[in-house]
């Protein structure tokens, strides 16, 4: 008997806090996914890092053996300076000295990566004034960019998602959730084709050292606003029409980001995903509950406010005693 009561109470407790348990499961799942990614990246990339370190040590040792007049300390200072300059996008190599990082087209490309929060990191402001302006420019520009993207996506969604789904639903009488799922899938396939596969093929043809996988990797890292910066187009020394190429990449990033937001918003409007999100949200107070609370408060207030009146009537009752007369003859004064 006690066990059945305990089990029933546990079931009621779980059902009454269902969204909380779902949220805890979501947090634990996210932490496990982070740990899973760390384990995979570490096991895959650590051997390559170790091999690269050994190769660099061997090259450095061979260089010092061939140049005995150069000490290791002087070489370390030189490499340190070179690496610091490379972190700011400045290379000491002869074939890379012809490219400027802060001409107009490169600065336009940098501004677009800052406002879209992509931030490749291959180019960064060198001066204190440039760093201060970057802070102010980002504080104003990033919310401005979010407002711009929200307005553009809202207008595109009307013509790309809502009207086509409603038209097919009303014209052919198909289920609206089914039409929405098929439409979202086709829209995602079209976006992947036009902004991932085709641009990856173009980048692999224009960039000498990029294959198709590396080009596709750049497209994904850029349009997802991850922006690792390990692959940046238009930085080769023999790049033809570099200025026009940089402007084209800037336009591609802005249009691609808009398309990605449209696709994400289309999937977010699916009823299945809305129900999935509601599993982890706190439930809002229902109107019936609010009405019951208001009625209860009104009854309590009425009861409290009526109590002094009843009490006053009881106190004044001995002083106001009126005899009910059945006829005029009952009046003692008349008698």
Briefly say what this structure is.
Helices cover 73% and strands 0% of the residues. The chain has 10 helices and no strands.
Secondary structure elements and their pairing?
Layout: H1 2-16, H2 18-66, H3 72-87, H4 104-115, H5 128-172, H6 176-206, H7 212-223, H8 242-268, H9 271-278, H10 287-316
Please, could you describe this protein's structure?
The protein is mainly alpha-helical. It is 73% helix and 0% strand. It has helices at residues 2-16, 18-66, 72-87, 104-115, 128-172, 176-206, 212-223, 242-268, 271-278, 287-316.
Keywords:
mainly alpha, globular, single chain
Overall average pLDDT:
80
Number of distinct beta strands: 0
Contiguous uncertain segments of 5+ residues: 301-305, 309-335
Spatial extent as radius of gyration:
37 Å
The largest sheet, given as strand count, sense and whether it forms a barrel, is: none
The fraction of residues assigned to DSSP E strands is under 5%
Q: Helix- and strand-based class? A: mainly alpha
Beginning-to-end CA distance, first to last residue: 81 Å
Helix content percent band:
over 70%
Number of helices: 10
Q: Assign an overall shape.
A: globular
Task: Report the order of strands and helices.
Answer: HHHHHHHHHH
């Amino acid at each position: 008997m006690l066990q059945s009561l305990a089990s029933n109470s546990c079931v009621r407790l779980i059902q009454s806090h269902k969204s909380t348990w779902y949220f805890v499961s979501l947090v634990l799942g996210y932490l496990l996914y982070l740990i899973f990614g760390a384990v995979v990246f570490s096991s895959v990339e650590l051997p390559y890092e170790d091999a690269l370190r050994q190769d660099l040590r061997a090259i450095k040792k061979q260089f010092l053996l061939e140049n005995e007049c150069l000490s290791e300390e002087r070489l370390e200072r030189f490499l340190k300076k070179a690496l610091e300059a490379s972190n700011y996008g400045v290379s000491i190599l002869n074939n890379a000295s012809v490219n400027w990082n802060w001409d107009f087209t490169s600065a336009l490309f940098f501004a677009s990566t800052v406002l879209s929060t992509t931030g490749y990191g291959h180019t960064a402001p060198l001066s204190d004034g440039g760093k201060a302006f970057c802070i102010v420019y980002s504080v104003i520009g990033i919310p401005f960019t979010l407002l711009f993207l929200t307005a553009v996506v809202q207008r595109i969604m009307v013509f790309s998602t809502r009207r086509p789904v409603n038209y097919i639903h009303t014209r052919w009488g198909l289920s609206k959730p089914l039409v929405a799922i098929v439409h979202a899938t086709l829209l995602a396939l079209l976006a992947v084709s036009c902004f991932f596969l085709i641009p990856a093929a173009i980048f692999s043809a224009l960039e000498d050292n990029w294959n198709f996988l590396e080009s596709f990797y750049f497209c994904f890292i850029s349009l997802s606003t991850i922006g690792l910066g390990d692959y940046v187009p238009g930085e080769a020394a023999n790049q033809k029409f570099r200025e026009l190429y940089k402007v084209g990449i800037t336009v591609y990033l802005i249009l691609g980001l808009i398309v990605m937001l449209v696709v994400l918003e289309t999937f977010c409007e699916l009823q299945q995903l809305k129900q999935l999100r509601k599993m982890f949200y706190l439930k809002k107070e229902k109107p019936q509950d609010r009405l019951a609370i208001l009625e209860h408060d009104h009854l309590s207030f009425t009861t409290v406010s009526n109590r002094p009146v009843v009490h006053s009537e009881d106190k004044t009752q001995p002083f106001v005693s009126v005899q009910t007369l059945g006829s005029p003859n009952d009046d003692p004064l008349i008698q």
